[in-house]
Each structure stands twice: as C-alpha cells, then as structure tokens.
C-alpha cells in the first residue's frame, strides 16, 4: 500500500474529480490526506490474499425489476430544478470550441 | 395543554389522548411549532420548518374518521426529517450549498410510509454536508448546538435530528447512519438512536453518500417509539434493489418479558481500549454488574478485526462517495456557478464552490482510492477487511444474542475541539463503524450522565434480529431508568428564557 501521495498526484486527482484547489490550500490538503493515508498502512498487517471482498451485505441474490417501460409523469417538475432549460433541454456552455468547428 | 403535558409521552400516549379527544393533531402541531419558534434560533436544529404543510396535514387528518381497528399507527405524530431524505415539494439540501435550491420532485419510500401511517412532518433538520461528519460542524448552513450544552456539538451527521428530539422540538425524528450518524448524535444528546440491519429499510429517496453502508434510522426519546417508527418504515421496496425481501418488522418478533433473561449478552474487550474515556468504561462496567445481578449470562467474545474497521471504512465510504457525488455538476439540478466559460469550467467551478471542505477532502481521497493502479491497493483491500469484520460478528453471535459496547470513546466535545484534525474527528465513530461495515442492527441508549453530559451504550444484534435488540433495550431502559434530557434544566431554555 502506497504510503504517501505526492503533490503532483494530488493535483491530478483533484482535476480528475472536477475540482480545483487554490495553491494556498493545496499544501494543507496534501498534509491532511497524507496523514489519513498513513493510517491506512495499518491494513498491511493483515493477510488478505485468501479473503474475498464483501461489496454488499447480502442476504440473497438482490432482486431485479422486470425490464418494463414506466412512464414518469413529473417531467415539468424535474426540469424546474435545472439551473437553465429551454423546451425541456438543459442549457450548457458551448462544448465545441472554434478550432474544432 | 403545554409542553410539560407531553414531555414523557410515547407514541402510544399520543394515540390514546387523540382517541379520547383530549387534544387534536392541530393543537399538537401548534405546540411543537411554538416550541421550535422559541428554541431554534439558539439551537439551529432545523434548516426549514414546514408550518403550513404540517398544519394542513393535521387538518386533513382531523377530517377523516378512523375506527379503533384502522387507526393509523402514527396518527398526528409530529416528526422531524433529516435533510437528506426527500419530501415532495420541500427543500432537500443535504446540508450542502450545492443543493441549496433543490426541491424534491418525489417522496422517499419512508416518507410515503409515514404519510400513510398518519405522521406529520415538522420540517427538515440540519446535518453535516452529505452526512460527512460527526459534529454537524460540516453543515453548509452553520452548526447545530447541543441542547445540553450550547458550547458542545450535538454529534453528527444527524445532529439536527438528535438535537430537535433532545430539546423536544419534535418527539421523534428520522436520520441516516452510514458509519454511526444516527447513533453517535443520539448518544451525544442523550436520546435513543437506532440503525436497522442494512436492507431492512428502503433507501429510495435517501440521498446517497456511501451506498453499501447508508441506512435510514430513528431518533426518539424512548425505545418504544423507535420500535413503533421502525415498524412503519421497514419492509421490502422494489425501488431499492438492496432492500431485503422481508415483510415489515412486527412487534411480535420481540421476546416476551418473562423470557428476556434467556438473552445471552456478549462483551468484546476490543471496545474497552485505553483510548476510551474512563467515565464511559466505568459506567458500562457498572451496567454489566447490574445485568449479572439480574441473572443475565455475560459471555466474553472477541472481535479481533475491530481495530482495522475504521481505516477500511475511510477507504470504502469516500470511494463510494466520490462516485455518488459525481452527479453534482450544475446541469440537471442544484447550484450552478456564474457565467461558466466552458463545460469543464462549469463542472469544476460549480463543484469547487458548491461543496464544503470535508466533502472535497473525501472526494479527493475516494477518487485516489479508486484511481487506476490504486483500486486493488485501497478499495479492494477495504472490502476484504470488511469481510473479516463481518465474520468476527458472525462468530460472536454463535456465542451470544447481543453485544454491549460503549457507543463513543468520548463525551460530547466542544466546537472546534476536533475540527482542526480530520483523523481525530474520524475517531469519534470508532465504535459505530464496525457494525455499519457488517450491516448489523445497532441501538444506542442513554445509560447515564457524567455531570450533565450523557453516556451512550451500544447494543448490537445479529442481522434481522431487531426483535431481540428491542426486547433487551426495552428491559434495560426500564431497569436503568435514566431520564431523557430534562427540557427545563437544559442550557438552551436558560439562554432562551433569560
């Protein structure tokens, strides 16, 4: 288990998570996250090769619903939650830039 | 009628009074709305109070006629709801600025069930943002204060729900528990907190934090109200595939009082480590002596992987959170940043300005744990440790019916005491996380006071054995006779009435 995350890795992860952290706060985040990761090293004491993971506290096979179309009648109410809408389309900034055009 | 009339009421007492027409649901709703108006400017347990909706619902109930046999089980009972559970038409912010303007277009399954049972919603309660925290200091709308000491935290993340019930702004509340978020605030506020077996209660309409751990639970002033509310909200739901295919809980699953001493009590030494406040350890030891004298069989058991559960949790929960919170991007609903330059800028600035620091910290941690090359090192390892923790409990429950542990390692702490160090804050949940990782039912009761601060006792049961848990908790509540927080001696009223 990796003991630390480097500052450049943190920057990469922040970008992957679609976040941005000002440089002034980044150092603090870096220290805090490394402090937390250091505690994770305790798990290296365990022999886990033969252990299967538990992803879900299962009592049986989770049930599935029939693959059937169901109409949602509250479309207007759903769209009323959106920050910007025209005729039931979400408005977003232009995706294709000039060079690609 | 005033607040003193109902301060020791159970749901059953309200029902009996309604049936005898001693008062009406509208009068009761007015009583609690007045109480909220008086106390909440100091307490800040509620993020919104639905005065009009609550009064309208009360009037609608009064217009219907019910016979003894079809009298709804929660008829006219006011309930506070944690603000990550969706009620149609009401704000559901999850304690986050990113959902500051969101109004839910649907009801959560638990809300549908409570409505059908005649319960009345007073409003939405404060919480740590996206349920990430143990003090309610991480709310995007400011912290809730502990009604027993306004300088101390009420616990979290369901701190608003716990504080509202402790101060009797509401007789009962719903919360959610991912790693202890119902039980720990219940303990810090001196009330009863209950987390059902994972899958016992539908999560449909509960805003996701860590889906394999999240569970809706109850916060009440006594054990019987927890049982009554759980009976209403439990049961299968085809809108939540993780919901167990079992019928709702029934009080007939409980053990008769004359057989209560057949319950074998387990004690795991791993929960009595040096890091626990000696005041808490001493009180639990006293209770074990009382139980021995009462004729209960006490069995020592071992949960050897307890010490690893906290670290595994802080891999699994942030990893799942980083995935669940990817949906907040400022397009379909919620907050959007001003004048985004392009789509990437919209995503990044919306999320960076919409989320608070702890949420950002956990998203980064979770994204790292799930990132290419690290999945096996972190997330998979966390899930394997979970298997070991679960097996420990399975082995223990072969020897005993329930386990008794401290609920928290410390008494309610002061604002700012732990918020400077995230890991210290995480340690506040060290005794509630293992059972959450194993998905077993857990109940927290107030087992005494140190000066005026409550001490929480945790009762753990095997999966779907809530009947044993409630039977034992009811008995223990009776023999310990620890009073719920006094609504007149509390610091809050002193400040308000000064």
Polypeptide structure, described:
- The complex is a heterodimer of chains A (101) and B (498).
- By secondary structure, chain A is mainly alpha-helical.
- Helix content of chain A is 33%, strand content 4%.
- Chain A is built from 3 helices and 2 strands; from the N terminus they run αααββ.
- Chain A has helices at 7-16, 23-40, 75-79; strands at residues 85-86, 89-90.
- In chain A, strands 1-2 form a two-stranded antiparallel ribbon.
- Chain A is flat and about 55 Å long.
- Chain B is of the alpha/beta class and 498 residues long.
- Chain B has 2 domains: 3-262 and 399-497, Amidase signature (AS) domain (Amidase signature (AS) enzymes, Alpha-Beta Complex), CATH 3.90.1300.10; 306-384, no CATH class.
- An 11-stranded mixed β-sheet of chain B has the order 1-3-2-4-6-5-10-11-9-7-8.
- In chain B, strand 2, helix 5 (109-116) and strand 3 (120-125) form a beta-alpha-beta unit.
- In chain B, helix 3 packs across helix 17.
- The model of chain B has no long low-confidence stretch (mean pLDDT 95).
